UniProtKB/TrEMBL annotation:
It is found in: Cell outer membrane. The lineage of its organism: Bacteria, Pseudomonadati, Pseudomonadota, Alphaproteobacteria, Rhodobacterales. It comes from the Bacteria. InterPro entries: LipoPS_assembly_LptD, LptD, LptD_C. Component of the lipopolysaccharide transport and assembly complex. Residues 1-28 form the signal peptide. This is LPS-assembly protein LptD. It comes from Paracoccus niistensis. HAMAP family: LPS_assembly_LptD. Keywords: Cell outer membrane, Membrane, Signal. Residues 338-682 form the LptD C-terminal domain. The keyword Membrane applies. The gene is lptD.
Amino acid sequence: MTRAALPPARRAALTMAVALTLAGPAAAQSPRVASLIERPGPALAPTRSMQAGDRLADGTSFTPPPVVIAPRRPPARGDAPPGPEDAATLLADHVELSGNQVLTASGGVVVWFRGARLIAERVIYDGNAGTLAIEGPIHLTEPGAEGTPSEAVLVADAAQLDEDLQDGLLTGARLVLARELQFAAAEVRRTGQGRMTTLTHVVASSCQVCATDPTPLWEIRARRITHDAETRRIHFDRPQFRAFGLPIATLPVLSAPDPTVERMTGFLQPRFRTTSGLGFGVMLPYFITLGDSADLTLTPYVSASRTATLGLRYRQAFTNGAAEINGALSDDDLEEGTRGYLFGAAAFRLPRDYRLGLQVQTASDRAYLLDYDVTDADRLWSGLTLDRVLRDRLLTSRVGRYETLREDEDEATSPGLVADALWERRVRPALIGGEAGLQFSVHAHQRDSGADIAGRDMARASARLDWRRSQVLAGGFVAAAQARLDADLYRIRDDSRFDGTEARAIPIGAVELRWPLLARRGGAAHLLEPVLQVVWSPDIDDEDRVPNEDSRLVEFDEGNLFALDRLPGRDAVEGGLRANLGVTWTRIDPAGWSLGLTAGRVLRADPDPAFERYGEVLAGRQSDWLLSATYSGASGLAIANRALFDSDLNLSRDELRLGWLKPGFELSAGYLWIDAVTEEGEARDVSELTAATGWQVAQGWRATAETRYDFVADRAQKAELGLEYRNECVTVDLSVSRRFTSSDTVRADTDVGLSVRLGGFGRSRDTGAAPVARRSCLR
């Protein structure tokens, strides 16, 4: 192996360390080469030369010395002497050095210089001119960028480059950016120290091209394409877009980001949308960067002369948070006048772990949000939030205004302005043990109406002190004791049925006994746990109760079977002496699946009037039976069912959930049945199915479906279908949805959407939802 060092020809010295893999006699292999090079004429190789690794007479290995060629002219004044990073390393089968500063390397040539790697068949370096004449096939890359988004690969038949391997001319070349977008050109010229790459008579595509089938799915042909490595933008001169080899469209000029770009001003992928209300339309977003931390997207939407819409999205990131504003203004023939919406949100981190949130939501009408596929929400909230969450304390507060879009709700008699604040601290008292908590909360809401009863306004200040301690007893029993004291002060206006001020204090005490039993049989583990909990709190007199604004939706499930109070809010409180009974059984199989059963019931000394009004399933001296079952399988299947029924086995509520997740397929489904008698405000039973699924139909093809079906009305409320195809160069997304519900303000509607994204322009965001179909070439 022989090394040679070649000084620079122009500015900084170019030093080449040449590692030779000897395939036969070559020049510059003798220890006497240094003196021979100074003579005119070529250096003659000896008949037999010592090679790297040969043993000398003293038993040591032979290492050839470097060969230094002095520059014909000194470096320019002020240039720093060459350092190790300025050295170029060359590997070749044959190397020849001539006296006129010409180095010729041939046979498997590899050159590394300043992060660039050149692979070629033959390289001729002219030290006087500082140029490289290269014969191919040529492969020029930056190994340090391999596998990164900034990777660029140049392949050519022949090239003439400068000594920095940056600027020059390449013929029969192909440029590949980020392993995604490729250009095939008759000629490639690089200037500006590799910044500008100009390709002439060029074809661009991100599709896999095979020798047996050279026609890509899509391609862009142009007279000239220029890639600016600094701005990372690609400029096309007279581009012609082709699909399956057929011309589709021609433009005078076109500019697009290269595959490494995440954010750049320009048009985003268009979306085509057809609805029964608006007809066929096109949305063409235009993205504008406003520095590194902000951007603006303007989306014109024109639909069959039936709407003229301008959508807006503004985003900004701060050192301690972020903000986003979305909105649109529309002039259509669905409603008179200008319609639109405005949604905004911001979140900020404040000192001492505080978090501040801001939200704005408003719309001209609910039908607008549905017509333009914004959201299904029918209540909008605007306001401020302030939170702080630590290990042993919590602060959460919010103040804002609700805007209702429901037809059955009056804006004037619905609580509009609402404020809430809660502070809680958890401690472990050393004297009595266990865990204790102290909580303070404030709530207030105001209606726009001043009418009696319907315009009621209310404010409440509350305090809560609670304590719980558990103890393991002999025989494996687990005993627990709980205590809680609630104090509330109410201020009530515009409701003649109640006093203007109301105060109350409600103590609650409970004892609990559990007996967990564990057994193993056949490798499976069985856990059986019966539970008895006795709770007491004073009866709440009907005449003394306050208005119930927040405890009207009562649930009964495994989560609150052993709760001290099953009413969700603070206005209504569960009272009286009661016993919560339950038993759970769980089987865990070594094969990876598990099965769990829970059964429970609530027994009361006297009926609680609160449940007579708001929760039929918990009314009377005996509640309905609660029975739930869960199954979790090793194959990704999970099933959960919860049923409520009385002593006569009359079913009042049943809820079934099913989830199945495996490679290439996911399913989520649920069925709900509610007896209208047990639900306040329900005029008819609820029997409803919801399901959403997605599956990998084939390589690159993914389908999704979602539905909501009302069995009582015997019709679907909503149905959606989606189909996506993705390969290495294109993503096509087709969606079809139908909303069947209609009213005076909401129309039944069918929506068909289509979007197409070409790969290679801007960095793609792979969601990983479906494998990409890649074209394979047969060899």
